[in-house]
Amino acid sequence: MKSSWISRGVTAAAALTALTLLSTTPASAASYWNSAVAPNATSVGTVVEQKVTVSKRTFTIQLRVGKYGSLSYFWARAPKNSNANGMDLFLSVYNASTRKWESRRKMISNTTYTDAHRSIHKYGYKACAKAPGLGGTAAVCTSARYV
Length: 147
Description:
The protein has helices at 2-23, 37-40, and strands spanning 33-34, 42-54, 57-68, 71-78, 88-95, 100-107, 112-113, 116-118, 124-130, 140-141, 145-146. It has 147 residues and is an alpha+beta fold. The chain has a single domain (29-146), classed as Immunoglobulin-like (Sandwich), CATH 2.60.40. The strands form two sheets. Strands 1, 2, 3, 4, 7 and 8 form a six-stranded antiparallel sheet that branches. Strands 5, 6, 9, 10 and 11 form a five-stranded antiparallel sheet that branches. The longest helix has 22 residues, at 2-23. It starts with a helix and ends with a strand.
């Protein structure tokens, strides 16, 4: 009887440890993305604005920052009438922990905002555009800004 209680205690402790580890891994960074920020942010500013040429079309993309609640967020924006309709717009985020870039894409139609990413110390942010499709063009990006 004692051994079954001990093994249950060890199993519960192992499960709790695994749960704690899962909640602190880089995979939890997905919660830093937010689709509601760009249209609802306050104190919005353009960090970088750049004209890019993708598939013989020249248009403007922007890296923007603003407040949503008490937190700051970055997102990419393509202004209306920028000749970019149909292209893909990205916010690329450099994750300092994994040393990899991750991104969220949105097809441009009029004024377009990507999902926003919470501003995190040592992370990098840049706005990018490319032609859609698997064989599309290489991404063209603004310079990166690091927090």
